[in-house]
């Protein structure tokens, strides 16, 4: 399935379940080779002589560190292009910048604001584009989440052979904002057979178009997607409770209002006691985390797999770059 991937990765909505699973399996393979068999770099240097542009208009820790180290592993060169370094957005249009930069690099990993910026880059770039986060999607994050879920629940199901054998039928409860992370989960989880309870305040609904896509995927894969406004109801029977910041990058001026709007949404032991998730439930969060959306007690508990999830950004980005950026002659 890896040889059939689309040129770009804007959202996992554009990928088949088999393609998603192949990327997750490839990531697990890189992780195993590196951590258990001492492979510090790719023996074939698939990105040798190639440069990947990292076009970041917003801050990043995980995504940037994972991408620069992955490109080194693949034998290539990473060129960080921060928003204060290049002409884009100040002296030059997105269209012109995309044409020019892509004429000199072999791939672009781009973190932007509006979704239209990532699709605009993809339209005008002659090199493959991977989305490093936009306001609607974060595909490399959700690949890392799938790897983490596969690792954690795979250990409990030793008879399972494929990614699908492990993840199918698991219940994910999202308690938080209607943002890029949950939209991307809704783009990938239902079609992989994962059930989702999505809980957001009524002021922050999931867009109709995202709901329709998730429903159509869920119908085909025989999974379920349900919507809630009460966190206690949403976490019932959950295997995975997941949240994210209530104030995404670019929403800083809305912070005071948002803290009010999300009152009662903090993931706490009290919520868990009231909501009754499944016995072996785990907690996930893409990070960076702020204390208001999850208590320290949960965040630093044995239930929490957030740092494993963060490390898995590296292995999944490595798999995505290996598959998408090595292709070009
Ligand atoms: N999860 C995530 O994308 O983190 P960074 O913003 O640190 O890259
Ligand atoms: N929803 C967050 C995710 C950060 C990785 C944001 O967009 O800022």
UniProtKB/TrEMBL annotation:
Keywords: Amino-acid biosynthesis, Arginine biosynthesis, Transferase
Domain named Aspartate/ornithine carbamoyltransferase Asp/Orn-binding: residues: 169-322
Gene Ontology BP, a term: L-arginine biosynthetic process via ornithine
Pathway: Amino-acid biosynthesis; L-arginine biosynthesis; L-arginine from L-ornithine and carbamoyl phosphate: step 1/3
Any GO MF annotation of the entry: amino acid binding
Xref: Pfam families: OTCace, OTCace_N
GO cellular component terms listed in the entry, alphabetical order: mitochondrion
E.C. number: 2.1.3.3
Domain Aspartate/ornithine carbamoyltransferase carbamoyl-P binding stretches: 7-151
Similarity comment: family membership: Belongs to the aspartate/ornithine carbamoyltransferase superfamily. OTCase family.
Name of the protein in question: ornithine carbamoyltransferase
Native source organism of the sequence: Linderina pennispora
